[in-house]
Amino acid sequence: MERIYLDHAATSPVHPHAAEAMIPYLTDFFGNPSSIHHFGRQARAGLDEAREKIAAFIGASYNEIVFTGGGTEADNLAIIGYARANRQKGNHIITASTEHHGVLNACKLLETEGFEVTYLPVDEYGRISLKGLEAELKDNTILVSIMTANNETGILQPIKEIGALLKSHSAVFHTDAVQALGKHLINVEEMHIDMLAASAHKFNGPNGVGFLYVKQGIELSPILFGGEQERKRRAGTENTAGVIGMYRALEISLEHREARNEDYLSFRNLLLEKLFEADVKYVINGDAPYMLPNVLNLSFPGANVEQLLMNLDLEGIAVSSGSACTAGSVEPSHVLLSMHGENERSKSAVRFSFGYGNTSGQVEKTAQVLNKVLKRMKI
């Protein structure tokens, strides 16, 4: 049985060229990049080159990149680190109700420390209102954190417009770009972004490594305590091989971004077309003009989503739900609840996400299998 992986928004396979680039740093150039001897200098040279390239990819400077253990750590360092270091400037933070839990739970922690957090609502398409954001800004607002693209729906927020709005305010602007980077063009200077979080495994790099862009002059309190790596902003020996794989994967993603996005858009349209031809009832969660091309979130009215996912997996189709499945019960995702409220649409959502290695033939087969499974479930 051919197994078809359509869950690239959860994690993506490591690109062979990225894996190849990592091997020398797992075998020959294995030194600690903080060591001053030959082996350490070899590792440091690779780390420095990767930092310089990654910075250039997003329009940043070399010393503005902090390597982390992934996107969640990057989000935590940006939000918790900035709030704690700048408490004297104010205690108000603004974010959105549909953010990744790496942002939401960091904000919840800060609420226990005396910070006030405003959670902006979203419309039925998952986008915040610029006017709504502007109305919530206060003199004591020190941080605004809005994700570039949602991990469940692929919905893009108006990041450039938010950055422009905040130019006239003292609050710094952080964006979780974990889902977007490599698929959506981002220039931190042009978009007036002060901090940006990214994770390698979303763009065909290895798991367990990411980075945080921090605009020069921004002070952060560390959230890890140990050595003085990453200019005292992130303690712990750098994952040199992982960083090399991340840089190479991002380079490849950006080189092929337009062609890949065209393929992903064609896959999305093909899946919808085949489902329509088969008379499968579905509702799209999101708004096509503001969606990443590789993410498609569909609700299937009347479907038991846990049962649907299990049946698809038995047929070799790997997708994920907009809901958190637990034994015997399904809880709607906070993203869909924010968009649609607690109803059948929020409880019957499935996310299809395309990526490296997918073909139109796999998409057609997915539509056929999905139709068969739904009929078997008598939907």
From TrEMBL:
Keywords: Iron, Iron-sulfur, Metal-binding, Pyridoxal phosphate, Transferase. It catalyses: (sulfur carrier)-H + L-cysteine = (sulfur carrier)-SH + L-alanine. Pfam families: Aminotran_5. GO terms for molecular function: cysteine desulfurase activity; iron-sulfur cluster binding; metal ion binding. Residues 4-365 form the Aminotransferase class V domain. InterPro entries: Aminotrans_V_dom, Aminotrans_V_PyrdxlP_BS, Cysteine_dSase, PyrdxlP-dep_Trfase, PyrdxlP-dep_Trfase_major, PyrdxlP-dep_Trfase_small. It is an enzyme of class 2 (transferase). The keyword Metal-binding applies. Its EC number is 2.8.1.7. SUPFAM superfamilies: PLP-dependent transferases. Its cofactor is pyridoxal 5'-phosphate. Belongs to the class-V pyridoxal-phosphate-dependent aminotransferase family. NifS/IscS subfamily. NCBIfam families: PRK02948.1. This is cysteine desulfurase. It comes from Alkalicoccus daliensis.
